[in-house]
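Need tokens for this chain, all 212 residues.
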Amino acid sequence: MHNEDLRIRKIIHILRKRYGYKYKKSNPYRSLITTILSQRTKDETTDEAAKRLFHVVKTPKEMVKLSEKKIAKLIYPVGFYEQKAKNIKTTSRILLEKYNGKVPNDRNLLMELHGVGGKTADVVLCFAFGLDTIPVDTHVCVISQRLGFTKNKDPEKIKNDLEKIIPSDLKKVVNYLFVEFGKKICQARLPKCYICPIEKLCSYEKKNLKIV
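Here are the structure tokens for all 212 residues:
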């Protein structure tokens, strides 16, 4: 095993020990709609909006019966709630017409749905279907760059870089661990390198080793 492979496994092992990870399969439709809601929206706002929406509807068939105005009212104040309401209704209709109300477990097919980009598709594949893929959000972008896993800034290119170096058996845990790590320690604006459990394994050149 190469030194870089060992470093990656050590990093994942330490973060997994710190934050844990137990795969719990989520409902594909709920996962899809919740991830659409989460775009450019805080987690707390997303969670509350999803809770309100899925208290009223549970399936694509029920969703298409709601007006866009009603959906928008239920998901407010997520970012771009009116556009998301439109995307949610359109996507739900497509699921009924093309996939018998089921969410496809294919990345390209998912990305043909309204409001679904690469990250959203990968979240569904990872957390709803348990596939070995790496959803790339802001936390994953920032942390991957700081650890020297990638020099790219484009999420799709970062995903490709990570897919090449992260062992298959660890791919599905990367997003969860990096998100937790990014929220609590390796924050985008100012990382807390002085309390970082993987600081000695990190190649970031601008480490913040003092409390400010």
